[in-house]
Amino acid sequence: MLHAFVYNEVAILVRHWFEVSLKDSHLEHGARIELRLRAPQPHRGTESASQKVLVDQPVWRADLFDRVDGERGGFEAAHFHPRFVGVEPCERNWADVVKDAPWDWLHDQLSDVAAIAAAAGVQLDDPAPDTEQVRADAAAIVAAAQSRAGKQCGSTQQCYAWTQDAAHSVHLMLGQLAQPDLLDRKRVSPWLETHRAT
Fold it and tell me: CA-to-CA distance for 151 and 91, rounded, in angstroms?
């Protein structure tokens, strides 16, 4: 499930994510929150016609993750990506506050999306309305993220159900592991099964 909070120029996307470390095959999961830009679309049809909403270019990402082999709700793998190069995130930023107080930190970040965008090298055309609206919705966005935290994912089957749409990304990870012998194959069995089927 993907939660989308869509504004004039930006959108905030919230979902559960499942990650396999390419380096040592450890597993992470939790809430992923992305700031993206809306792409303007030409009006289609009459004044009553449904309009296309295109949310594409990523600007910023927070991955408030637990390690699957760690403490539930421990946020050992929580980090953020303050900018993107095209569609690729920059290296992980491991600021202590993201692990120590992830929900407070996220709420604070959402108080000024124009500043987040500017720090990522993106200038919004009219930043005030989106900044005010996202700030007003910050508690609801944080609540959506909390509902998709690692602590809320109680089983392998639930994790797979929440991330099934992104199975191809997990398959790419599984195909690039430096130490595949360390992989918890039972924990990733749903993704392995769909990988074999494709």
Answer: 25
